[in-house]
Specification:
alpha/beta; two-stranded antiparallel ribbon; 5 helices; about 20% strand; globular; binds flavin mononucleotide
Length: about 190
C-alpha cells in the first residue's frame, strides 16, 4: 500500500513538473534567430511548458539532456545544413551517449533559413531530422498556411526574397505550439531521465 502511494505521488509530481522545451539555433546574420524567436513564442503559449531560447554556443553539454523537447534551427550553407548546425547536433548526440540515454520519449523539430527558394532547405531539414531520428527522438514537423505538414518552418532571405516574414513567423509559432503540445502529451508515459 505504502509503495502504491509512493508511486502515485511520484507519478503526480512528474505530471505536474513543467515540460521543458529548448529552442536552440545557429545564426550568423540573424535570420534563423528571428525564426527561432517565433518558435519560442508558439511553445510559450502552451500551458505547463517552460521554454528556453538559446544560441547553440550558449547551450552547455551538461544541460542538453535535461529537455523533454528540442527545436533546432540553422542556416543552409552550400545546399546543406551549415557546419555549425551539424556541430550542435553532434554535441546533442555526444551528450546523450555520455549520459547513457537516448531520445526515446523526447520530441524534436527543426527549422532553417536560406538565401534562395530551392537551394538546400529540404536537404538541410532532412539532415537535421535524420540526426534526431538516429538519436531516437520522435519528430514533429511544421504546418504550412494551407494546413499541410512540412519538414519544419523555413524562410527565404536572399535579396528580393520575403525574409522571415509574417507567414514564416506563423509557421514558426505553429511548430513551437505543436512541439510543446505533443511533448506535453508524450510526458504521460514514463521515460528514463
Ligand atoms: C557560406 C554560406 C553559404 C551559403 N549557401 C547557401 C546555399 O547553398 N543555399 C542558399 O539558399 N543559401 C545559402 N546561403 C545563404 C544563407 O543560408 C542565408 O543567408 C541564411 O538566411 C542565413 O541565416 P542566418 O542569418 O541565420 O545566418 C549561404 C550563406 C553563407 C554565408
Amino acid at each position: 500500500m505504502k509503495l502504491v502511494l509512493l508511486l502515485l505521488a511520484a507519478t503526480l509530481s512528474a505530471q505536474q513538473s513543467p515540460v521543458r522545451i529548448l529552442v536552440a539555433y545557429h545564426s550568423d546574420t540573424g535570420h534563423t534567430a528571428k525564426l527561432a524567436e517565433a518558435v519560442r513564442k508558439g511553445a510559450a503559449g502552451v500551458d505547463g511548458v517552460a521554454v528556453i531560447l538559446k544560441k547553440d554556443s550558449d547551450v552547455s553539454d551538461t544541460e542538453i539532456t535535461s529537455y523533454d523537447g528540442i527545436a533546432f534551427g540553422a542556416p543552409v550553407h552550400w545546399q546543406s545544413v551549415a557546419a555549425d548546425g551539424k556541430r550542435f547536433l553532434d554535441r546533442v548526440a555526444a551528450a546523450f551517449t555520455a549520459a547513457k540515454l537516448n531520445g526515446d520519449g523526447r520530441i524534436a523539430g527543426v527549422f532553417c533559413t536560406a538565401g534562395a527558394t530551392s537551394s538546400g532547405k529540404d536537404l538541410a531539414r532532412l539532415e537535421m531530422i535524420a540526426a534526431f531520428l538516429a538519436m531516437r527522438f520522435t519528430i514533429v514537423g511544421g504546418v504550412d498556411r494551407e494546413g499541410f505538414g512540412t519538414l519544419g518552418p523555413q524562410a527565404t532571405t536572399g535579396p528580393g526574397a520575403p525574409g522571415v516574414d509574417a507567414a514564416a513567423e506563423a509557421e514558426g509559432r505553429a511548430l513551437g505550439e505543436r512541439l510543446a503540445r505533443l511533448t506535453k502529451l508524450s510526458r504521460g508515459g514514463s521515460v528514463k531521465r
